[in-house]
């Protein structure tokens, strides 16, 4: 009897680094002078890796959906993104709008404002919306050749002149290619991570990363008015913003190979590895909890009390760095609270909704027993027919390969 495969460590570490960087970023953004702090400068080094690692791992564990029907895709995957999104986005929006109303006198918005933010994904939980879209796009490429499927991931670049009008379009430009690459290039990624000590591989990856960070630094010092808009057919213009986002995609692609080797190496560092894996296995509650915690603890209690916070404040409790660290702790503790909520009946369903797969498969048995498409391929191997527990029964494995482990 074969032993069950051990859970890969490096994908969880990649997610752990990603969520830790996100929590720190949002803490720095929330606190006055936070983006000028030393912590923000350190976190800025993760900018080309923070979300790319998350979406790469999400795609890495999404190969099964290439053999799904659309019903399977929805009930075994998308359902577990849609429910937390619709349950918690209105809560986070209301709390934030309430903070702005109390502290800055802004009017509370009408219902249509909430609907707009939800429908267009302009909120703190946009990544769930993006995962829904990315999974659908990946599923639509299931009958394409692997290389053609990879090219589809870059198709949002055709709409780059309009990305500033739609937040999710910008996210698709930056992260859809990486998500699809995670699926289509999984065998190559696995080999790359397994050979994290191979010196030629390290050298190539480091050189690519140096080019990426060099380009990243170049854009950080380049004045926006130094690039003149390039006219395109019709009324479309390509200017600083358009060239910047295309360059950001290139930067992320250049840095990712070194990032994969780094997280694979971290998997062998005692204590640190276990800590990052723990965070990576609890990404969803951490992501949902930390902006809500920031609003309540900092927006309501600190700013609401009239506290003045500055980088050079005399009082320790009025300093920027102190509050950035407090909000990081709040985010981590909030993740534990939300993890506890996920264990409760009814309320917990907003985080880990009950599976409807059994109900749907019973009503649509003919569909679930149909022969899977012959076109589902990744570079290097065929994607087998899904077996075992359906993906999506809980939110464990990077929103991907095994949601069967509860957070």
TrEMBL record:
Does Disulfide bond count among this protein's keywords?
A: no
Which Gene Ontology MF annotations are present?
acyltransferase activity, transferring groups other than amino-acyl groups
Q: Where is this region: Disordered?
A: 371-407
Which residue windows are transmembrane per the record? 13-32, 77-95, 115-140, 160-181, 202-224, 244-272, 284-303, 323-341
Asked if the keyword Transport belongs to this entry, the reply reads no
A family per Pfam: Acyl_transf_3
* Boundaries of every Acyltransferase domain copy: 9-337
What keywords appear on the UniProt entry?
Membrane, Transmembrane, Transmembrane helix
What protein am I looking at?
A: Uncharacterized membrane protein YcfT
Which organism is this entry from?
A: Corynebacterium spheniscorum
